[in-house]
Backbone:
């Protein structure tokens, strides 16, 4: 049960970090950040769905966690490209990587 709770918490933290990152990138108005914004939005959506399914112990949770980990990893890789310039991207990449690790347990 502890790993389930850890995964839910990691998904929630990642969801928040992705929403913050996407919003800050949108506010900057830099079109070069479009791929980062898209990755964050996809990641936030899958984390939201994953934490819901985990919370209700869906029989499909394991499959969804696998997809969630892949999307979070892609988002972390995209945010890493900007992590030196933008703190929100660094934080997002970190949250995504924690989620990847937790979802793969």
Residues:
């Amino acid at each position: 049960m502890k790993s389930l709770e850890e995964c839910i918490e990691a998904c929630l933290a990642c969801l928040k970090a992705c929403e913050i990152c996407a919003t800050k990138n949108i506010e900057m108005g830099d079109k070069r950040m479009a791929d980062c914004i898209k990755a964050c939005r996809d990641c936030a959506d899958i984390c939201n769905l994953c934490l819901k399914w985990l919370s209700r112990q869906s029989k499909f949770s394991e499959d969804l966690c696998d997809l969630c980990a892949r999307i979070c990893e892609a988002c972390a890789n995209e945010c890493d490209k900007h992590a030196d310039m933008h703190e929100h991207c660094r934080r997002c990449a970190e949250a995504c990587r924690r989620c990847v690790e937790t979802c793969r347990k």
